[in-house]
Amino acid sequence: MRRLATLFALLLPAIALAGAQKYEPLSDSVRAALSRSIADQAPPRSSFRDPMESIEWLTEMSQRLEKKMPNRENRLEFLRSLHYEATRAGLDPQLVLGLIQVESGFKKYAVSSAGARGFMQVMPFWTKLIGSGDDNLFHLRTNLRYGCTILRHYLDIEQGDLFRALGRYNGSLGRPEYPNLVRGAWQGQWVYASRRISVVTQESPAATP
Predict the structure, then answer these.
(1) Tell me: the pLDDT tens digits for 136-152?
(2) In Å, what is the CA distance from 131 to each residue of 32, 39, 108, 149?
(3) pLDDT interval class at 169 (50, 70, 90)
(4) Has residue 168 got a pLDDT over 90?
């Protein structure tokens, strides 16, 4: 099943499988916490551990994303923002890339039949529920901030169960198609391991007894 999902994701670069998060009443404490998370502030610093990690990751992901986003400047801005927002929410940035591939096909102004908007296909009701009400979901960082915050919220609800959290995100809880496609795109196209790990391993001196 994993191989089939990966193959399907690889053959589906331009097709979006957007769903729709479903409105669910939130407790005051959860709503307040999500509102704080969504507060729109410019990133105060890089989300990378050091400059070399930034260069390696951005170079690698930029090459993979080039066909979907030909403009280099826009591509790098997108990747920097995505890495920051995913890391901020405690998510794997490569997972978020897989989700965006399936949700919108990396189309900034995508709109689903249910009205979900932008790269991460965020439903407009969220802006009234936890935002200012007039937040622009087509704005790059706003869309990524909402999408990553919402996915983190669903992961918390589901106690870390990614399959169920993805189902909630897409409005297809309990059905396997969407979670399998996201995981297929994530693992088939966006998995990343730093080259420095292998270099350090190869060059490290043998341990002495």
Answers:
(1) 999 999 999 999 999 99
(2) 10, 7, 20, 12
(3) very high
(4) yes
Question: Using CB atoms within 10 A of its CB, is residue 18 exposed (0-12), middle (13-18) or buried (19+)?
Answer: buried
Give residue 178's domain range: 2-15+30-194
Neighbours of 42 (CB within 10 A): 6
Residues with Cβ within 8 Å of residue 24, at least 6 apart in sequence:
none
CA-wise closest residue to 19 among 125, 115, 119, 154: 115
In a domain, 206, yes or no: no
The predicted model scores a pTM of 0.82
Q: How many CB atoms lie within 10 A of CB 105?
A: 17
185, 104 contact by CB (below 8 A): no
Q: Which two tokens stand for residue 92?
A: 């794997």
pLDDT at 45 over 60: yes
Count of the separate structural domains present in the chain: 1
